[in-house]
Automatic annotation (TrEMBL), chain A:
GO molecular function: RNA binding
GO biological process: mRNA splicing, via spliceosome
Sequence similarity: Belongs to the snRNP Sm proteins family.
Keyword terms: Acetylation, mRNA processing, mRNA splicing, Nucleus, Ribonucleoprotein, RNA-binding, Spliceosome
Free-text function comment from the UniProt entry: Plays a role in U6 snRNP assembly and function. Binds to the 3' end of U6 snRNA.
Species whose genome carries this gene: Roridomyces roridus
Name of the protein in question: LSM complex subunit LSM5
Location within or outside the cell: Nucleus
Automatic annotation (TrEMBL), chain B:
GO terms for biological process, alphabetical: mRNA splicing, via spliceosome
Organism lineage: Eukaryota, Fungi, Dikarya, Basidiomycota, Agaricomycotina
Subcellular location: Nucleus
A Gene Ontology molecular function term of the record: RNA binding
Subunit structure: LSm subunits form a heteromer with a doughnut shape.
PROSITE patterns, per database record: SM
Swiss-Prot/TrEMBL keywords: mRNA processing, mRNA splicing, Nucleus, Ribonucleoprotein, RNA-binding, Spliceosome
Protein task: Binds specifically to the 3'-terminal U-tract of U6 snRNA.
Limits of the Sm domain: 8-96
Organism: Roridomyces roridus
Any single GO CC term annotated in Swiss-Prot or TrEMBL for this entry: U4/U6 x U5 tri-snRNP complex
Main location: nucleus
Protein name as catalogued: LSM complex subunit LSM3
Family: Belongs to the snRNP Sm proteins family.
The keyword RNA-binding is assigned to this record: yes
TrEMBL record, chain C:
Protein name, per record: U6 snRNA-associated Sm-like protein LSm6
Domain Sm: 27-99
Family, similarity comment: Belongs to the snRNP Sm proteins family. SmF/LSm6 subfamily.
Assembly with partners or alone: Component of the heptameric LSM1-LSM7 complex, which consists of LSM1, LSM2, LSM3, LSM4, LSM5, LSM6 and LSM7. Component of the heptameric LSM2-LSM8 complex, which consists of LSM2, LSM3, LSM4, LSM5, LSM6, LSM7 and LSM8. The LSm subunits form a seven-membered ring structure with a doughnut shape.
Any single Pfam family the record assigns to this protein: LSM
Function statement: Component of LSm protein complexes, which are involved in RNA processing and may function in a chaperone-like manner, facilitating the efficient association of RNA processing factors with their substrates. Component of the cytoplasmic LSM1-LSM7 complex, which is thought to be involved in mRNA degradation by activating the decapping step in the 5'-to-3' mRNA decay pathway. Component of the nuclear LSM2-LSM8 complex, which is involved in splicing of nuclear mRNAs.
Amino acid sequence: MASQILPLELIDRCIGSRIWVIMKNDREFTGTLLGFDDFVNMVLEDVTEYETTPQGKKKTSLAQTLLNGNNICMLIPGSAGPEEES
Amino acid sequence: MASSTIQEPFDLIRLSLSERVFVKLRGDRELTGILHAYDGHMNLIMSDVEETIMLVDVVDGAPPGQPATVNVAKRKMPMLFVRGDGVILVSPPSRT
Amino acid sequence: MDDTTPPPPPADQSPPPPPPVQTHTGSPTDFLKGVVGKRVIVRLTSGVDYCGVLSCLDGYMNIALEQTEEHVNGAVTNRYGDAFIRGNNVLYISAAEAI
């Protein structure tokens, strides 16, 4: 069998680099990934939170943050997030 | 300070037994009452309870950001079981 | 028995060097150890923020906070000497001072 990479191995390889986290609702986070656990609770550093509200997009800057894995939907490794020029 | 007697969050609740507590619930509801019992789900038994319900009336077609009218409804219940999954926050009386 | 298990090392081999001492790795557990007793911001999935000193927490992310301020849309809406927050409501716990 060809070398398989498990999904969480990919995330493990992202430790130390920027990651973009998209939640199940209208919320997104970017930050430097410091670590995570089996529930994919994540510790992020230099975090920006993006919130889409009826009043528009809201940005919040945060220091070291433990993000509850319960509402995480997608993870995009190496991305600076919604504001990255593509 | 409280931290000297608290090792886990449930200690905060244990120390509030027989005291009047403030409980914030999902659905913009708040309770104050005497806490008689709790369990690991945060199911609660309370007595002499006053419930406060915030009813927010959003005017149809109103522009976003316009302050909605808030109506507050209150009611009293002599004895109450609260299902734990509705609990957001429990605050004991300040021990100062 | 897993036949990929390597044989035990010979007894005369010197033990491997201890792993480098890391004052903090990045795991959630280590973060939480570092942040107990410090000022934190707890945001709930509803968007409400609780700013206070983190007394302790458990495996469900149930949280005990001291000197807590409740913030809704940036305005202080309540103050609590102590507050227990049920873990299922927690979106994140963020350090509000150096850890």
